[in-house]
Amino acid sequence: MHIILLDMIMELINLQSSQPSAELFEQEEADLMKDLAILPRQSAVRKINELVKRIRKVKTLAYIIGYLKSQMPTVMGKEKVRMCERSD
Questions:
Q1: What are the tens digits of pLDDT across the range 47-61?
Q2: Which of 11, 17, 29, 59 is the most buried (most CB within 10 A)?
Q3: 82: phi > 0 → left, psi -120 to 50 → alpha, else beta; which?
Q4: Could you give the CA distance from residue 88 to residue 71 in angstroms, rounded to a whole number?
Q5: What is the pTM of this model?
Q6: Element (H, E) at 61
Q7: What are the pLDDT digits (tens) for 24-46?
């Protein structure tokens, strides 16, 4: 991103425009510095968003596993007790 912005600045300097080159360069430099200042905040927000996505996936998986577990018959629990009662 930084290289692209610097290339754009250099192209704008080389272009003939109604504004003096120095003024145009200063405006572009200010925009670049503003963009660079925002980057750490954007990175933190992106990390938080990724963490939220992972938490949602884990939560969904836990619900699915809980549901499947409730639907499965108990192998060693109630059935074993019933078999012992029948044999008596």
A1: 899 999 999 999 999
A2: 29
A3: alpha
A4: 29
A5: 0.45
A6: helix 21-71
A7: 778 888 888 888 888 888 888 88
